[in-house]
Amino acid sequence: MIKTFRGIRFRLTFVYSTLFGLFICIFAFITSQQYLNNARQDFDSALLNLAIDLAGQVKLDQTDFKSMIELPPREMRKQFPFPLGLTTFFIRSIDGKILASSTSEDKTNDLIPYKVDLALKEDYTHRFQNITWEGKSHRAINLKISSQKDQALILQVATPSDILQSQESRCFWLNI
User: Fold this and answer.
1) What is the pTM of this model?
2) More confident: 42 or 63
């Protein structure tokens, strides 16, 4: 029996099995990271598409933005990749003043951080951010609506990122 552990067959089998196991672990890690990157990109693409659709409703010469920031009832029931019914919208002037909000006024205090210096840049189009609001993780986007400096508005959209986080946690536990 001791000769079995000292034999060349055992050593080669042990080395090849160890290398194969290591290769499988590395492959699984790389595959899951690629899957998570794709899930994040899909989530951000859906958020950007929603913001662009909402921006299409905003008319710069109108002063009452509140009526334009509501989703139709059939849209509110949509859940994937994020629940639209829990999504929050803001329209800000370029200097940061909130012109319209889909939430009550007392909840708007710095929900989505805003940086005036970024919005004033000529090449600024949009910016994604992770934020925490009321103890929940959200993904947000700031989208510049107009390229004209004097009429530019910023549309901010924040949505819970529960579905994305559940995908991330499942992949984490699969890798362990």
Assistant:
1) 0.74
2) 42
